[in-house]
User: Which sequence fits this backbone?
């Protein structure tokens, strides 16, 4: 089993769905986990950072709920600082916070386009930027950005979500080279199939999906745990698909 004993992880966008599954998987592997997101109270979409952190603690793990708005630099810096203060350092960062918009470009409101860029791209930038000095201080670590197979589906047109995630992949592929001498692994991870999260349903993506096209969020959790143990001597500078790392059974 993958072991992360003694490691500290920060998971952005962890109040529900893929982020919550990743936070639980990292905790099950032994990491202390900062469960970060804006969702301190129940809202339109189910899930809070407190409920996810509480479930981890109730299962015998270590976790803390950390409020974080990934579009706000001060909020991100404070969330990372809280994590380091709580657990004594930082080794693993999962940039998962995201918003979904799959509408065609010609009918996409500017505010939706901008929101995708602000959360899905700038949010990854801010979380990563704030975390790098702390990973350096630990002598290395692992950065993971959650993306999507949609970036490859150019035959199906374009939308703000895929564009923002494609930019994240370019950011992380280049960053892997920049951080290689710091012993920091930098990788992207996406589901191989569709994960029917609460966010997916709330964004209107809840159309009927055939069972064979659905991937459980726990697969992403296990895949993230495998990437979390990496440093620059291992897997780095890659875009990974979950079911390649964790084969379907």
Assistant:
């Amino acid at each position: 089993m993958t072991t992360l004993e003694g490691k500290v992880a920060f998971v952005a966008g962890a109040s529900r769905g893929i982020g919550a599954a990743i936070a639980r998987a990292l905790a099950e592997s032994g990491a202390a986990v900062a469960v970060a997101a804006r969702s301190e109270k129940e809202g339109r979409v189910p899930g809070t950072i407190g409920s996810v952190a509480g479930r981890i603690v109730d299962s015998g793990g270590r976790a803390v709920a950390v409020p974080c708005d990934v579009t706000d630099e001060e909020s991100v810096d404070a969330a990372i600082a809280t994590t380091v203060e709580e657990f004594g350092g930082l080794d693993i960062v999962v940039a998962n916070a995201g918003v979904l918009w799959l509408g065609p470009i010609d009918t996409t409101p500017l505010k939706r386009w901008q929101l995708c860029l602000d959360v899905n791209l700038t949010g990854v930038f801010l979380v990563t930027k704030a975390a790098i000095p702390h990973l350096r201080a630990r002598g290395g670590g692992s950065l993971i950005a959650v993306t999507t197979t949609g970036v490859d589906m150019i035959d199906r047109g374009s939308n703000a979500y895929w564009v923002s995630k494609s930019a994240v992949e370019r950011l992380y592929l280049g960053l892997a080279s920049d951080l290689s001498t710091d012993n920091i692994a930098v990788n992207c991870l996406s589901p191989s199939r569709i994960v029917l999260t609460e966010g997916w349903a709330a964004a209107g993506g809840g159309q009927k999906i055939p069972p064979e096209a659905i991937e459980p969020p726990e697969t992403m959790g296990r895949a993230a745990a495998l990437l979390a143990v990496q440093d620059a001597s291992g897997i780095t500078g890659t875009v990974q698909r979950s079911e390649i790392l964790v084969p379907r059974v």
User: Anything to note?
Assistant: The first helix runs from residue 17 to 28. DSSP finds eight helices and seven strands in the chain. The longest strand covers residues 184-190. The helical segments are 17-28, 49-58, 73-87, 110-137, 160-178, 198-202, 217-228, 242-245.
